[in-house]
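Thread: "does anyone have the structure for this chain?"

Original post by V.I.:
We have the sequence but no experimental structure in hand. Need at least a predicted one for the grant figures.
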Amino acid sequence: MLGPGKADLLEGIREAGSIAAAGRAMSMSYKRAWSLVEEMNAAFGEPLVSSSRGGTRGGGAHLTKTGEAVLSHYRKLEQITRAAGEEQIGAIEDLLGDMSVNE
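Reply from O.Q.:
Generated one for you, tokens below.
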């Protein structure tokens, strides 16, 4: 229902005021971004994103009150998880290969 990519998309929509712009910033097609928004809106009791079509007024999108709350709770959960798993995350990072080889 919600993971790091969807949370990043919500954050992008909040910052850009647009589903298309948030998707572009993540190298994602508008169709994919819109599909993810529809999935999130359907999964929760209330929509997370509200949007209006373009036209003379330009349209746009914004997070609803529920969307803001879900994003806030998710980011807090990430912080808690990172803090609790710091030792294990470090151990995994120590086992990673040289990432510069792929550049």
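V.I.: this helps a lot. The chain has five helices and two strands.
O.Q.: and The longest strand covers residues 49-52.
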